Amino acid sequence: MMIRKSLALLLACSLFAGPAAAQATAVQPVCIDPAADVDPRRSLFVTELDVVQHTFSLEEVLAKLASDSGIAGLRPDDLWQQWWDTENLSPGLGLGPNCDDVVHSQGNATINGFPIQCPRNEGAEINVDPFTPDLPSFYEPIALVNRFDLAPTDGANCGEYRVIFARHSGATNPFQRNLVIFEAVLPNPDPSCGLEGCRMVARFWEKLSEIDDPARRASLLRRFYLEGFPARGIAAVIQAEHFGPGNGQIRTNQFTSGPGPQVWQLREFKLAQLCEGEDGPCRLQFTPVTVKGNPFGELFGSTSSDRRSRRFKRHYLTQVENLSAADLNQFFAMVPDRFNAGQSNSSGIENDYTVHFAQSPRFERALKRRLRRLSIDLEPEHLVRRSLAISCAGCHQLSNFAPENDLGGMEWPSSLGFVHVTEAQTETIDGGEHFVISPALQDVFIPHREEVFEAYLDRGACEECESLALESGGPPAPGMIPVTIDDGTSLDLVSERVRALDAELKAGRSDETVGGPRPVH
Predict the structure, then answer these.
(1) What are φ and ψ of residue 422, in 5° steps?
(2) Could you give the percent of the chain with pLDDT greater than 90?
(3) Distance separating alpha carbons of residues 336 and 507, to the nearest angstrom
(4) Phi, psi (degrees; rounded to nearest 5) at 450
(5) Cα(112)–Cα(126) distance, integer angstroms
(6) FRET label pair with 170: which of 140, 269, 462, 513, CA 20 to 30 Å apart?
(7) What's the CA gap between 212 and 219, in Å, rounded?
(8) What is the pLDDT of residue 17?
(9) pLDDT confidence band for 29 (50 / 70 / 90)
(10) Residue 47 pLDDT > 60, yes or no?
(11) CA 126 to CA 128: how far, in whole Å?
(12) Across residues 155-178, what is the average pLDDT?
């Protein structure tokens, strides 16, 4: 840890002038520190093979989650099978909900009332071994990610810390790819200090830039993710409650072959403790939920029979100013969860908002009037294309190589055609072998995160905030808040209750993060 120096500036007049002159000048200590200058590939987006492949495995992650549940006999295999059985037809393995538990009047499976593909080819993952190296079905870690920029400005938490696993088959077979991303929200070690309570977390990541030995960095990151630093009040990243309602999520990027249509799709899950009644047995489950920031495509059009379509358009008119920011890292749209779909397709037109918007001239005219009233020099289609760009499908594929004029004077940076970090290609950086990251990360998103992170590090006070929280090793872990269900409760109702609890726990939390107002990605 860098030692902060304090310099008390004593004015000569206080020595030679009278007491009144000395009292007239309030002297404050000045902190002298070199400006923070982190290596983003060590402190923000870690893809070095000698680091990520020597930290921890998917099996260890699931074992930690199983242990956190307190459920006797729960194994990593059980969690894995239950997770992917959600994409199979009922009755499946009988471990929890299946994707066809709820269907609408036309017979299509739904989440949040919007159709989802059911079954998915990835449902066959219940039959594979994801834990044994060198098997095509092995899931290997390819990135560890510091998203301090997602910390709320009020210090409600310290942002998200992520780990990305990729199916080994994807390294050689582009038609057999599946990636999973665990995105944990890390509690503030000292919430009474506000955002300043996160300083020890930030300094941990800053320190990684100074360590040349990849084995040492791997060891520290393993401890940070699996054990934490209790003496500093820093909880382990991998804890069941950190992926539950009110906290983080698990997202997937799916494209495996099989008997069904091979649709490239992104989905989202919460880890929930589901309990049958107040005193009944509980089980820990991956629960499919809506994909945040991804409104269902047909809501942009005029042909949808869903009554939410009109309400969505009225809400979208309130987001015109947010979408008009002249910065790729700052424009956004708040999407109430009632409008979010249960999947985000990077194949086909379901998530291509521009296709649906082209069929809605009345909506286009309303947006144009709103833009003119606000004196914003953009066209309605620019706004819709920006919404597409910040959706999962758009950010990963549909907005790649869009002409500059499509976003109104800005060009959206490209992914790697499927992902933002690839398991299929490596490059040498400063003598180390790294998995390749996308131009979007390299040129736009990571530089912004670095600027935000270093600005926070540079704002350190001479005397750190102290409270009683750290004297006892930090605030107590809150544990998972159970979701009460009945035996046989449908997938849609389980998802709805998990989402409702998530919204309740986040109510009143600042939407503004240290990185800006964009709430996801």
Answers:
(1) -105, 140
(2) 76
(3) 12
(4) -65, -45
(5) 25
(6) 269
(7) 13
(8) 37
(9) low
(10) yes
(11) 6
(12) 97
The larger pLDDT score, comparing residue 349 to residue 468, is at 349
Instruction: Write the CA distances from 490 to 86, 90, 102, 127, 487, integer angstroms.
Output: 11, 11, 7, 24, 9
In this structure, the chain runs to a length of: 521
d(CA 56, CA 114) in angstroms, rounded, equals 37
For 75, 81, 242, 281, 334, the CA distances from 70, given in Å and listed in that order, are 11, 19, 15, 12, 37
**Non-local CB neighbours of 494 within 8 Å, separated by 6+ positions:** 97, 272, 274, 287, 483, 485
Pick from 400, 415, 296: nearest CA to 355 = 296
For 261, the token pair is 């249509």
DSSP H or E segment with residue 506 = helix 491-506
- With 0-12 / 13-18 / 19 or more C-beta atoms within 10 angstroms meaning exposed / middle / buried, residue 186 is buried
Cut 0.70: pTM above it: yes
Q: What token pair was written down for 250? A: 């698990």
> What does the alpha-carbon distance between residue 97 and residue 91 come to, in Å, rounded to a whole number?
8
15 pLDDT tier (thresholds 50, 70, 90): very low
5 has pLDDT over 80: no
Measuring CA to CA, which residue among 303, 319, 315, 309 is closest to residue 390? 319
Domain boundaries, the chain: 1-33, 40-294+340-345+424-506
For residues 427-466, one letter each, b for 16 or more C-beta atoms within 10 angstroms of the residue's C-beta and e for the rest, the string is: eeeeebebbbbbebbbebbbebbbebbbebbeebeeeeee
Query: Residue 9: pLDDT above 80?
Result: no
What torsion do the CA atoms of 293, 264, 170, 62 make, to the nearest 10 degrees? Answer: 50
The 8-class DSSP code of residue 311 comes to: H
CB atoms within 10 A of CB 409: 11
pLDDT value at residue 467: 60
CA–CA gap between residue 143 and residue 162 (Å, rounded): 8
Contact 318, 275 (CB under 8 A): no
**Bond from prior residue into 91 cis (ω within 30 degrees of 0):** yes
Lowest mean pLDDT among 4-8, 237-241, 275-279, 417-421: 4-8
Question: DSSP label at 196?
Answer: G
How far is residue 451 CA from its own chain's centroid?
19
Q: How far apart are CA 39 and CA 205, in angstroms?
A: 10
**Residue 245: cis peptide before it, omega within 30 degrees of 0:** no
| Mean pLDDT within 140-161 | 97
C-alpha 213/C-alpha 173 separation (Å) is: 33
How many whole angstroms separate alpha carbon 517 and alpha carbon 505?
Answer: 19
